[in-house]
Amino acid sequence: MEVPPVHPGPASLELLLLQGEHRSSYIWDGQCLSQTFRARRIDDMWEFIRDRSLHPCIVRRLPDTSFYRIIEIGRLQFDWALITAMIERWRPETHTFHLPVGEATITLEDVEVLFGLPVDGLPPAEETALSGATHLQLTPVRQHLEVMDAEITDDSPPEVIDRHTRLVLLLMFGGVLFPNTSENLVNLRFLHHLERLVDLPGYSWGAAVLGYLYRQMCRASMGTQRDGAGFLPLLQFLWRPYSDALIASLPDNCSRGRAMWSSSVPLICLDIVEHHSTERVLRQFGRPKLVPIPPACLRTHYQRDDHSRVD
User: Fold this and answer.
1) How does the average pLDDT of the chain come out, rounded?
2) Is the C-alpha dihedral spanning 129, 277, 308, 183 positive or negative?
3) Per residue in 91-122, pLDDT tens?
4) What single Pfam family name could you report for this chain, choosing any that match (predicted)?
């Protein structure tokens, strides 16, 4: 029996307006068949912690910033074949993965439950314009941190502890939560938010991390890109619905933003704005899926950032 030809899809281009530029089109044409994404991770923070334990004064300070769970979990090994497969199925038009079983996506629920990052709070938007350089190399930050670490004692004043904590968080921002494809730069626009450590839990860092990852996946899924960035551990876990019993067993910082988990809201990270498209994945929240409205997609939205703005 003759096997009918396989249609690569999509059957209709009404929704997926970027199909001609999408990575899947290149794969169907015989390109990128053996290409996996290259590791774009910056391990300065993990190497610093590996070579020396954080001083107890810093360990006691970090939980108040909402970021200590990242350090508790530690460095995760990346499965680049899996990450490549997921990015190939990511659609910038809908901010969802298009799978044989339907659409799915990474949500604010995943970010808070797994990593304890707050998802309900002020957006960490760009407060003021910077003059001069907008990025800083992480290697000098780590070197300065090593010098300071040798000077910290149990009697160090709070301002010294806070200064050290800011440097640890700067390494985390540039190397773990918001890495870019440079492999050695952190955005200096985060410094404004690190000025007052006591204010950090009031920001929606989970939404910022997710919005930044969405933007990086939108870029990586287009054309023949080979670089992946963002908080990629969110791409490699076995997902299943979170039961009420599981949610009840979590520490408070992993569930306090529950009211926001299924909300359809903008995800803001400095000058990046992406949409949290929960209306397309209601089954992930135990609800019946409705017919969603067509997304409002800007063809060049994923190209907009502080490096290259497209008008």
Assistant:
1) 85
2) positive
3) 998 999 998 888 999 999 999 999 999 999 99
4) PMD
What is the tens place of the pLDDT at every residue in 249-307?
999 989 999 999 999 999 999 989 999 999 999 999 988 888 877 776 666 666 655 54
Question: Between 275 and 150, whose confidence is greater?
Answer: 275
Residues, the chain, total? 311
Q: How far apart are CA 90 and CA 143, in angstroms?
A: 38
Taking CA atoms, 199 is separated from 27, 56, 124, 194, 202, in Å, by: 46, 22, 11, 8, 6
CA 200/CA 182 separation, integer angstroms: 26
In 3D, which of 117, 195, 116, 204 has the Cα closest to residue 162?
Answer: 195
By C-alpha distance, which of 189, 187, 284 is closest to 239? 284
Nearby residues of 164 by Cβ (< 8 Å), 6 or more positions away: 55, 58, 145, 148, 149, 152
Kindly provide the residue ranges of all beta strands, DSSP E only, lying in the chain, ordered along the sequence. Answer: 90-91, 96-99, 102-104, 135-137, 185-187, 266-269, 272-275
CA distance linking residue 210 with residue 178, whole number of Å:
10
User: In Å, how far are 17, 166, 185, 209, 274 from 268, measured between CA atoms?
Assistant: 24, 22, 20, 9, 7
Residue 94 gets which letter from DSSP? T
